């Protein structure tokens, strides 16, 4: 199993942050989105927030590949609809590549 940690900022607006969290409650997330996540080989995913910064932790199958996930998402109209909706709330990190949302984090410490 592989683990990836990613970061992204939300627009710093309390109403938009509340709405973003609303969409990510179990009862509000679209089933097609959770299905696409699992189909890509993501076994577990958690998102944490502090202020307007988000941290995502993904545990994946050993053969998980970001390029394959991106291609699957590009071909999935429901995922594209979701991503368009989420851009209302999100903003790229200052050091993100153009068009990049979530930025992969580097592990700098491990205990054990």
From TrEMBL:
<dbReference type="InterPro" id="IPR011008">
    <property type="entry name" value="Dimeric_a/b-barrel"/>
</dbReference>
<dbReference type="InterPro" id="IPR052996">
    <property type="entry name" value="Carb_Metab_Mutarotase"/>
</dbReference>
<dbReference type="GO" id="GO:0016857">
    <property type="term" value="F:racemase and epimerase activity, acting on carbohydrates and derivatives"/>
</dbReference>
<dbReference type="Pfam" id="PF05336">
    <property type="entry name" value="rhaM"/>
</dbReference>
<protein>
    <submittedName>
        <fullName>L-rhamnose mutarotase</fullName>
    </submittedName>
</protein>
<dbReference type="InterPro" id="IPR008000">
    <property type="entry name" value="Rham/fucose_mutarotase"/>
</dbReference>
